[in-house]
Write a structure and sequence with these properties.
The chain is 28% helix and 18% strand. It is globular, with a radius of gyration of 25 Å. Bound molecules: S-adenosylmethionine and zinc ion (6 copies). One zinc ion binds next to loops. One of its GO terms (molecular function) is nucleic acid binding. InterPro entries: DNA_methylase_N6_adenine_CS, Mlase_EEF1AKMT1/ZCCHC4, ZCCHC4, Znf_CCHC, Znf_GRF.
């Protein structure tokens, strides 16, 4: 069984809408970090624990790091489970069978042969998502095949390939041209010479297009992505088949060395990581991976540069801000709204812009990043950063406080700005959505009840006693809530409850994508 990521999301994205649930699955560190985790076809698996009402279950299990769809990877092993030699051998054979049919080297050879073909012989099978050499034609003659594949098409594989839309695993949401061009221009203005694109195939190709075009940008790019189809279009120095949830290079040491050389070129000067992970992905394993990439970069630095940070753009929904800052406290969130071409909810459509919740988290000082004024962003001299059009500077908070791009209002009782739709509730003693369940689960920690952190960051998390106490408290609160609500009618039939459910579904739809 792959860990049910949709449950994991409820733990991570809590607070994004409606009342919280405290059940789900979390990643945990193994007792002996040096002991190797069992392998699935996607590399080392991760150790998970089920969390029920804020309490961790005792038995932990290994599951796939990359896939949350059992159809893609059904790996499951209890942490304390001992496997027979026969089962281990069967697993190894299965892992080998699941690897791509061609080695990286074979892909490169095919690509070079393809480039030598005259235009009339350059064909692409849409069904198999594969560039065809003349020897392959026969095998695909009943498939939908397109011909005359031009160099321009070869340079834009993200347009030739269909985006993988398995919501539970890949969710390949591709940047809209406007956002992609903004990123390329920004990287160039900031003076970067190398970009490590982690899960950003469209950005990778635009950087390379500009480098080969008239604009004379000389930025180099290396793409790390789990989508093997991209290996048909790039040489070894510009694509590595990679899993960003466990820092696994499918092509072993040679690929790792490509990545190392890329990060360490010029003693690590002029390089940035840009990553846009699938939004359903867990923050912690991603953070662990990015820290490994940072360590790889650091190895190549001069001693006197030791204090420097590797610049990163991590593109992710705004409601993960506190989670990301937990791992990278120096990161700030930019107001820029990243748009996608193929996302049903958040694309810049003809019908007008739906506000995308996706932002850029970065350790580059925000005052160095100019956002496009023609799209309504403006510079706040007090905050020393560009902000959204409606994000107003609050003199009480001394900051432009909006996170979602709408104007937020200051609440003098809470002493902070809150979403425009929220009201101050005198029962809960803080601002909340008008139809919240009073005295229901607070937006704070499930273990100790503090508002400043979530259970995953709770300093008391190891103390199971306090966890049990908190759960009991929580249950007590819940039963009070029910008592209160029964006087108002059944909570789930209330129109506000239906609205809330819809909102949660919308948030969930986004997260699961
Ligand atoms: C949300 S899309 C981002 C695409 C980006 N917006 C672009 O246009 O270039 C996520 C990307 O991460 C890749 N991806 C998904 N799971 C991955 C994993 N476990 N390791 C590495 N890449 C992964 C997908 O193939 C996809 O390219
Ligand atoms: Zn797997
Ligand atoms: Zn085919
Ligand atoms: Zn401001
Ligand atoms: Zn305020
Ligand atoms: Zn308030
Ligand atoms: Zn209340």
């Amino acid at each position: 069984m792959a860990a049910p990521r949709d449950q994991r999301e409820t733990v991570e994205a809590e607070g994004s809408a409606g009342c919280r649930r405290s059940s789900g699955v979390e990643v945990v560190q193994p007792a002996d970090p040096a002991a190797p985790a069992p392998l699935c076809p996607h590399g080392p698996t991760l150790l998970f624990v089920k969390v029920n009402q804020g309490r961790e279950e005792t038995r932990r299990f290994y599951a796939c790091s990359a896939s949350r769809d059992r159809k893609d990877c059904n790996f499951f092993q209890w942490e304390d489970e001992k496997l027979s030699e026969a089962r281990l051998a069967a697993r190894e054979a299965h892992n080998r069978r699941c690897q791509p049919p061609l080695t990286r080297m074979q892909c490169v050879e095919r690509y070079l042969k393809f480039l030598e073909l005259p235009l009339s012989q350059r064909k692409f099978c849409e069904r198999c998502q594969q560039l065809l050499l003349p020897d392959d034609w026969e095998k695909h003659h009943e498939h939908q095949v397109v011909g005359d594949i031009s160099v321009t098409q070869l340079r834009r594989p993200s347009r030739l390939l269909y985006p993988l839309e398995n919501k539970k695993t890949n969710a390949q949401y591709l940047f809209a041209d406007r956002s992609c061009q903004f990123l390329v221009d920004l990287l160039s203005t900031l003076g970067f010479r190398r970009v490590l694109c982690v899960g950003t195939p469209r950005l990778h190709e635009l950087i390379r297009l500009e480098a080969s075009g008239d604009k004379k940008s000389n930025i180099k790019s290396l793409l790390l992505d789990i989508d093997f189809r991209y290996s048909q279009f790039y040489l070894e120095d510009s694509f590595c088949h990679y899993n960003m949830f466990n820092h696994h290079f499918f092509d072993g040491k040679a690929a790792l060395e490509e990545c190392r050389a890329f990060l360490q070129e010029d003693e690590g000067e002029g390089v940035i990581i840009v990553t846009d992970p699938p939004f359903g992905g867990l923050v912690e394993p991603l953070a662990v991976t990015f820290k490994k990439l940072i360590a790889l970069w650091k190895e190549g630095q001069r001693q006197d540069d030791n204090h420097k940070e590797l610049p990163i753009f991590w593109i992710f929904p705004y409601f993960f801000e506190s989670r990301i800052r937990q791992f990278f406290p120096s990161f700030s969130m930019l107001d820029y709204q990243v748009d996608y071409d193929n996302h049903t909810l958040y694309k810049h459509g003809k019908t007008g812009r739906k506000q995308s919740p996706v932002r850029i988290f970065t350790n580059i000082p925000p005052n160095k990043i100019v956002l496009p004024t023609e799209e309504g962003y403006r510079f706040c001299p007090l905050c020393q950063r560009y902000v959204s059009m409606e994000n107003q500077h609050c003199e009480h908070c001394d900051s432009c406080t909006s996170k979602d791009g709408r104007k937020w209002n200051h609440c003098f009782l809470c002493k902070k700005c809150v979403k425009p739709s929220w009201i101050h509730c005198t029962i809960c003693n803080h601002c909340a959505v008008p139809d919240h369940c009073c005295e229901g689960p607070k937006d704070g920690c499930f273990v100790c009840g503090e508002l400043g952190h979530k259970r995953t960051a709770c300093p008391n998390i190891s103390s199971s006693k306090s966890a049990h106490k908190a759960v009991r408290k929580q249950k007590q609160r819940k039963s009070n809530t029910v008592k209160l609500e029964t006087t108002k009618g059944h909570p789930m039939n209330h129109p506000s409850a239906i609205r809330k459910k819809k909102r949660r579904e919308r948030a969930h739809q986004y997260l699961c994508s």
